[in-house]
Structure formats: C-alpha cells, structure tokens
Amino acid sequence: MKHGFLDKYSDRDSLIHRLDPRTKLITSLLLITAVVLTPPDRWPAYTLYLVILAVLLILSRVPVFYVLKRSLVIMPFVLMIAIFIPFFKEGEVAGSYNIWLWQLSVSHSGLQVLVNILIKAWLSIISLILLTATTRLADLLKGLERLRMPKVIVMLMSFMYRYIFVLVDEAMRLKQARDSRSFGGKRLWRIRTLGNMIGSLFIRSYERGERVYAAMVARGFDGRSRTLNPLHFRPADAYFGLSLSLILVFSSVINLL
After folding, report:
1. Which among 52, 54, 81 has a CA at the least distance from the CA of 68?
2. Where are the domains positioned within the chain?
3. First vs last Cα of the chain: how many Å apart?
4. pLDDT per 10-residue tile (average), the chain, 257 residues
5. Hey, CA dihedral for 95, 100, 103, 105, is it positive or negative?
6. Which of 81, 109, 193, 215 is 20 to 30 Å from 173 at the Cα level?
C-alpha cells in the first residue's frame, strides 16, 4: 500500500508549501471556525470562503481533481449523519411521503439545515485536504508539538499514520493466504475463518508494537518528534497569516451585524 496517502503533493514548491506548518495549522483552524460559525442564511460569506479556498488551491499548485475527489469521498459519510434532519426538524412542511406504515414529512427549515451542514462540511474538508496535501506529515506533527499539543497525542498520530499501512499490508497477506487455500465452503466456515484472521492480525500487531517500542527505547527514544527540516517563522508567514485573519474577522463581523 502506498504511504503517500495524505501528503501526496507535499514535495512540490509553492508559496503555500513554503509556509511554516504552524501558520497553516492556525489559519486552517481560523477558516474552519469562521465557516462553522457563519449563520445558515449568509450565502455571500460561503461564496467568500469558497473563493479563498480556490485562491489557496491555485497558489498551492495541488491538482483540483485530487482535492475534489478526496472531498467527495468523505461527503457521503456526512450525508448519512445529516440525512434525517429534514424529517425531524419542525417547521413548514415541504412534502409528505408514505413509506409502508409511516408517514414522513420534510420541513423547509430542515432542508435548509441539511444544505447548510453539507456546505460547511465540504468547505472544512477542502481546507483540511489543502493543509495535509501541502505539508509533510513529519513537519505537521512537529508544528502541532510546537503549538503545545500533548506529546502523547502527537506520537500516537505519528505511529498511527506510519503503521496503518503495515497493518493493511499484513491484512492483505492474510487474505491472499486464505484465498489460495479456500475452495468454497459454507457461510459459517467463512465467518469463522474471518474471525481467526482478525485474531491473528491483532496478535501480530501487538507483537510488532512491542518489538518496535523495544527498538526505539534501545536507540534513545524520549517521546519527542524530530525532523531534518527545522521550523522557521518567516515574514511571509506573518503577512499570509495576518491577511487571511483580517479577511476572516471582517467577514465574521459583517455576518454578525
């Protein structure tokens, strides 16, 4: 399995790539906060956020199709959670449907909330994709550590991203071994085989984790995240962060008024 899952285009050179990871983390958080706090009926504000993301996407030189594809993969999960809101939100009825013994009504306010949630989720997902696509994971974790995030959480995120691919490769090898030895069978036998595979994967993961930890301790691991590229806060970071922050603050004030 390929390891360049999140930071696939982080090796490119652009204005966004050269920014300090802390600058990108803080501005992404500000942008997501502004999007979430925007009232549902402020459509010009959502247009402004989309324009900001489009400009950042152009400056970052990340393929547009890549960002759209990654964002649309996550949207069905958001839709599965928010799809029931129009049926339970009180308000003027937009439509009524009979499904077997139940009569379901859809309200206008519920539809508005649903669309608002989908738009906010989509804009937030795009901002996170831009953050991870333009920043190496090691630098991103280093920036989180410099921003005083607990070291335990930073190391857990680092190990999770590093070894999730190892576990997936191990699971694929188990599946290949099962398929090469399987000639059919009843459903109960397949379920039992799947249970044995899950148990074997858990044991192998636990043993691998113990070996990795012992090797890291033997090499002087002290819980800190180290990278070959030191982080530097440059004037470009100040100009970028200040400009984007002023735009978001101005937009938020206009929305509140």
Report:
1. 54
2. 10-136+232-257, 149-228
3. 50
4. 64 85 90 87 86 90 87 84 73 62 68 84 91 85 83 80 79 80 70 82 84 84 70 85 87 74
5. negative
6. 215
